[in-house]
Every structure is written in C-alpha cells, then in structure tokens.
Model the fold of this input.
Amino acid sequence: MGSGSGLWRRWPLLVSVVFVLLLAVGHVVVGARPPDANASGDQVVAYFRDDGAAIRASAWLTIIALLPFGVLAAWFSHQVRGAARDVLLLGGAAYIIMQTVWQVLSVAPALHPDQLDSRTARTLLDVTAYVGPMLTAGVLLFAAPIAWASLRRESSVPSWFRWLTVLLVAEQAVETVTILGTSGFGAPGGAMNFPVGAGLFVVWVIACGVVFPADGAAPPAGVDASQKVVAA
Done:
C-alpha cells in the first residue's frame, strides 16, 4: 500500500516524463532537421518528399504528447491562485493550440509532395518556422505565474526550482527576438527556438513534476494549510 501511495503521489512527475519522452521521440523520428531559413525551395520539396513518413510520425507523437500536457496544465494551475491560475491556463491552452497548428502546417505538405512546387514549399516552411517564436508567448503565460508566485514570497518550492523558473521566463522573453531574425542562431525556427528554448522548457516541466507532487507541497508562509497553493 505504501509503494502504491508513493507512486500515486508522483503521478505529476510520471506524466511530465511521458510528455517529454513523446516530444523527444517525435523529433528524433524525423531524423534530419527541417531545412533552415536559407534553404532553397527545391531542398524544401525534397525534405517533404523524402521524409514524409517520418514527418507524419513526428506529428502524431507530438499531438499525443499534448494530452499529458493538458493534464499537467490543469494540475499546475492548482499550484497558484487567483488571476495567476487563469493566466497559467491561458498559457497552457495557447501552447496546445500553437502546437496543433504547427503540426498541421508541418505535415500537410508531406501528403502530396509530388504536387508541391518549390515556391509554395518554401513559403509553407517559412510559416511553420514562425511558430517557434510565437510559442514563446504561450510558454511565458504558462511559466510566469509560477515564477511570480515563488518570488513574491517565501514558499515551499526549493530555491533551485525558483531560479530555474526565472531562467526559463527570462530566456523565453529574450527568445521573442527570433521574430526579427532572418538567419543563423536567432532565425525563426533556428537553434534559439530549438533546441535551446524548447530544451529548457521541457526540463522545467519535469522539474514542476518533481516539486508539485499529487499531495501538494507544504504551503508557503501566510497561506492556510488546506489550500496547498503557492500564493500569487
């Protein structure tokens, strides 16, 4: 009974690991990274033609990953209160919507690549590249309430998690400049979006699973013990 109870207590961590693993496998399945902002239209067409099956598999795994993420968003929202809870849920919803749009735009050109001309292919890939910069808004709305709540007053969350959350929020805020980029590290869909920003985000999600177990952490100073929330 004790081991079962302990496993149940850790379900947020288990769900967060499932979310991250699905995303990681989904991106590894594709194998080659999508062509960058400087690739020619012919190279983009070749990508959709040669890697179509892998692109579809990646999109499927990513969409499945959004299911545990939705559960996590609901659970994490209970770790803050007031308007912060609504902001966090809006951020989670924005993340799910943007990921869904991204997968649709990414996988659709691979369905009939033989009918895809180079200019259309290049334009579609450019559109999907901007999803990375746009995702930063959803991540900021999702993480900022927890960062604000943990910094505003002393709480039960450990200091390493507090600063990891601040780092994520700061990085995502800086990452918005990829909207202005055209090539290299700071280009939309470039390395600043993936893997830097995305990698930091999934590490933070797992950290949330660690510090927000199912029975809740001890409440911060000044909060009634029955609430089990981080004051916001």
